[in-house]
Write a structure and sequence with these properties.
MYOD Basic-Helix-Loop-Helix Domain, subunit B, about 50 residues, mainly alpha, single chain, 2 helices
């Protein structure tokens, strides 16, 4: 995945995460799973050159 594509995906996931937090609350499995996925993508972005 290209760096630009990864950034776009991260931004979209951040928006979705905020929506899910409002809808389901911070302790929801849906929110926690999306948060973990977002963390993985952020790590990938940090490791890209």
């Amino acid at each position: 995945m290209l760096k630009k594509e990864l950034r776009n995906k991260i931004e979209a996931m951040r928006d979705k995460l905020h929506e899910f937090i409002e809808k389901y609350g911070i302790d929801s499995d849906v929110v926690l799973n999306l948060s973990q996925e977002l963390d993985k993508l952020l790590c990938q972005l940090e490791n890209m050159k």
